[in-house]
Amino acid sequence: TQVFQMLQTILFMNVSSAEVSGVVLLGDVPIYAVDPANWSIHFHWPWSRQAASEGDAEKIKSHLKIYLRNMIQYVHEVAQEEQLDYPLVVQIRAGCVLYPNRTSWGFMDIGEGGRDLIAFEVERQHWEPRKPSTLAELVSKSFNSKKAITAMLEHLLSNSCQRHIFTLRRYGKTALERQELPVATVFARTPRPDQILLVCHVTGFYPRPVSVAWLRDGQEVPPGPSLNTTAILPNADLTYQLRSILAVAPRDGHSYACRVRHRSLGTRSLLIPWG
Ligand SMILES: *[C@@H]1O[C@H](CO)[C@@H](O)[C@H](O)[C@H]1NC(C)=O
Ligand SMILES: *[C@@H]1O[C@H](CO)[C@@H](O)[C@H](O)[C@H]1NC(C)=O
Ligand SMILES: *[C@@H]1O[C@H](CO)[C@@H](O)[C@H](O)[C@H]1NC(C)=O
Fold first, then answer.
1. 234 C-alpha vs ligand 1 centroid, how far in Å?
2. Ligand 3 residue neighbourhood (C-beta within 6 Å)
3. Cβ of 107: how many Cβ atoms within 10 Å?
4. Are 242 and 229 in contact (CB under 8 A)?
C-alpha cells in the first residue's frame, strides 16, 4: 500500500494577503514542493522533474498558478460574505492510496482553522460537509454546482493519480527503493538500586518498518509491563529511529540481547548483547 498526496496550507493574514505552502509526497518521500515566494514548483529530485512532464502532471503544473489565484480569491470572497475573522488557515489534502491489488482510492479534504470542513467523495463526484456549519454547507454547495470541476477532480484523483504513482516508481526507482542499515546500541540506566533499564537504541534505518525485540537467554521477551518500545521517530536525513527499553533486576543471572530485523538486513538480524 502506497499513499501519494499533496498537502497544502494557505495562510490568510488579512483581506489582501495569502501565503501558500505545499508539498507532494509519495509515502514519506518528498517529490515536489511549491515555492512560497513565486508559486513555482520545486523538484526534490532530477527524476521528479522528468515524471512531472508526463501525463496530466504537465497540465496540473501549467494550471497551478491559476488554480491558486482562484482559490485565494474565493476564500477572500467567502470570508467577506460570511464575515469570517482573519487570520484564516485553509488546509487541503488530496491524493490517492494504491493497494497491492493495483486498485486505488482517491481522496480530497479541505480543512479550515485546523478542523475538517468538507470532503470530496470521488466516486459520487460530490462534496460533503464534514461538520455541521453554515460555512461547510455553503462551500460544499458552491463546489457541487461546478460540475466541470467535480468531473475533472474525479478523473485526477482516480486515473491520473494512480498513473502518476507508476510514473514516479519508474523514474525514481533507486531513490524510492533506497535502503539504509540500522545502527543499534545497547546501554543501561539505573534509576533505582533494585532496577536496571536496558535501552536498545536503533537509528539510521530506511524504510520505516522495523522489528526490535529483547532476548532473555535467547528467548524473545513477550510484551508486558517490563517492556517499552517508543514510537518510530524521523531523523532529519529521512531515516528513522526508535528505542526499546527492558526493565530487569540487577544480577538476575540471565543474559540479554537486543535483536533488530529490517529489510536492509535481508534474512540476517542484528544481535547486540548486553554486558
Ligand atoms: C522562485 O524563487 C526561488 C527562490 O525562492 C528561485 O530559486 C526560483 O528560481 C524562482 N522561480 C521562478 C520561476 O522565478
Ligand atoms: C483491493 O484491496 C483493497 C484494500 O485491501 C480492497 O478494499 C479492495 O476491495 C480490493 N479491490 C479488489 C478489486 O480486489
Ligand atoms: C513502560 O511505560 C509504562 C507507562 O508509561 C510505565 O509505567 C512503565 O514503568 C514503563 N516500563 C519501563 C520498563 O520503562
1. 29
2. 197, 226, 228, 245, 247
3. 17
4. yes
Q: Which long-range contacts (CB under 8 A, 24 or more apart) does 174-180 make?
A: 175/29, 175/45, 175/47, 176/26, 176/27, 176/29, 178/206, 178/207, 179/206, 179/207, 179/263, 179/264, 180/204, 180/205, 180/206, 180/239, 180/264
12 SS3 class: strand
Give the model confidence (pLDDT) of 46-85 as tens digits.
999 999 998 888 888 888 999 999 999 999 999 999 999 9
The amino acid present at 74, given as its one-letter code, is Y
What Å distances lie between residue 30 and 24, 182, 259, CA to CA?
6, 22, 31
Helix axes 134-144, 56-81, angle to 10 degrees: 140
Using most ligand atoms within 8 A of CB, pick from 20, 32, 34, 40 the residue to mutate for ligand 1: 40
Closest ligand to 102 CA?
Answer: 2
pTM, two decimal places: 0.85
Cβ neighbours of residue 263 closer than 8 Å, sequence gap 6 or more: 179, 207, 209
Which is it for strands 233-234 and 240-248: parallel, antiparallel or unpaired? antiparallel
Query: Over the stretch 194-229, which tens digit does the pLDDT of each residue have?
Result: 999 999 999 999 999 999 999 999 999 999 999 999
In the chain the domains, ranked by start, together with CATH numbers, are: 2-176 (3.30.500.10), 183-273 (2.60.40.10)
